[in-house]
Amino acid sequence: MxxxxxxxxxxxxxxxxxxxxxxxxxxxxxxxxxxxxxxFVPNITMGPAIIGSLRKSTKLPFDVHxxxxxPESHIESFAAAGADYITVHVEAASHLHRTIESIKKMGKKAxxxxxxxxxxxxxxxxxxxxDLLLIMSVNPGFGGQKFIKSSLSKVRRAAEMIAKLPKKxxxxxxxxxxxxxxxxxxxxxxxxLVAGAAVFGTKDYKKTIxxxxxxxxxxxx
Length: 221
Ligand code: DX5
Ligand code: ZN
Hints:
This protein has 221 residues and is an alpha/beta fold. It has a single domain, classed as TIM Barrel, CATH 3.20.20.70. It has an 8-stranded parallel beta sheet. Strand 4, helix 4 and strand 5 form a beta-alpha-beta unit. The longest helix has 13 residues. The relative contact order is 0.17. The site of D-xylitol-5-phosphate has 22 residues, from strand 2, strand 8 and helix 7.
């Protein structure tokens, strides 16, 4: 079964706790939390204090996507805040192997993320060490952007790389995922689908999440 991870970047920020509880009740599998620092990406969002206070709103795993420079300096505080998966960008971490090790030492699942313009070769060496590979299918920074079509072949190639590994990380796709393209992305090999605007931009979360899940899992062969 493929997992749906609503991104709370597109939720009503004045009611984040309720929005999280609502998507949990609607069938979400994970909660995707976008952390932006205004340096690695142009936007600024939330930090460990808010994440810590949201932790009591749900039992679902927190999938924390760090779009920040020097992520190694902040791993401990996100771990303490209740992150389950902590994902750092290959473009932002200068000693990626050490950062991934430190996430695992804290008892958390470690993820690596890759921007649209970064070739898959950049994560080849670290792939056997991680629990999650997050492929960005938009340039990170904002919700509601258009899925970059070439990402589909990147997802397919990443799935082939993963298939060769003894310990297979989950393959997650983030950016512009919606009801129209989620079937193709699922078929390309994604295990976890992030959806922000496609979930929070609709009224009936339950209906939307069931449609996303059913479409993502429909094998077109
Ligand atoms: C983009 C973020 C995404 C974003 C996805 O920088 O990493 O998680 O919230 O939002 P949609 O699904 O609206 O593209
Ligand atoms: Zn994200």
